[in-house]
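Reading group handout, session on sequence-to-structure problems. Before we discuss, look at one worked example. The prompt was deliberately terse, the way you'd type it at a terminal:

> structure Cytokinin riboside 5'-monophosphate phosphoribohydrolase

The input record follows.
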Amino acid sequence: MSTITSVCVYCGSSPGRDGSFLEAGRKLGNDLARAGLRLVYGAGATGIMNAVATGCLEEGGAVTGIIPRFLINKEAPGSSLDRLDDLILTDDMHQRKHIMFDRSDAFVALPGGIGTLEEIVEIMTWAQLGRHEKPIVFANFSGFWGPMLSLLSHMKAEGFIHSQERVRPLVIDRAEDIVPALTRTGAYSEGDPAIIGRL
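And the output record:
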């Protein structure tokens, strides 16, 4: 596995109903900065997206924000984009996702909605097709991704997930365990207490 220098975080532009998700997002941002890892995210200044970016910036971290022009007024109002040291404006969502992929060495899905789900599923699809071998993490805070993980296991059992060795995301339930898992050298251990498991 290549050295990880940047991490793409997919997450909700809303805070959700569980306040601990915001706290966990901010903690992850803190940890990325302290580890010298660049945050790559959707440039939003609301919800969990804002918590992750704020956490990274308050620890002096580097942040790349990538956002389509049509979303700026909705997700990044006012001068919120000025705080980022690297800002990329795109014409559409497809361009945004491709640039996020190109700029990132690993991917983490925090709690979020349909957009977050679509983004992480696409990354897994590309892995299944052999387009990358970058680590993928489901941040399963309070069991948030449990239904999704059950569906993936069902798909696998029914024979619809091929090249299974390529689609083995890490499932981690605590924010503080994500960066250590990503930066650990060598292969991940299935017995690592920080890791719930792999699909």
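Points for discussion. First: The CA atoms of residues 113 and 129 lie 25 Å apart. Second: The longest strand covers residues 63-68.
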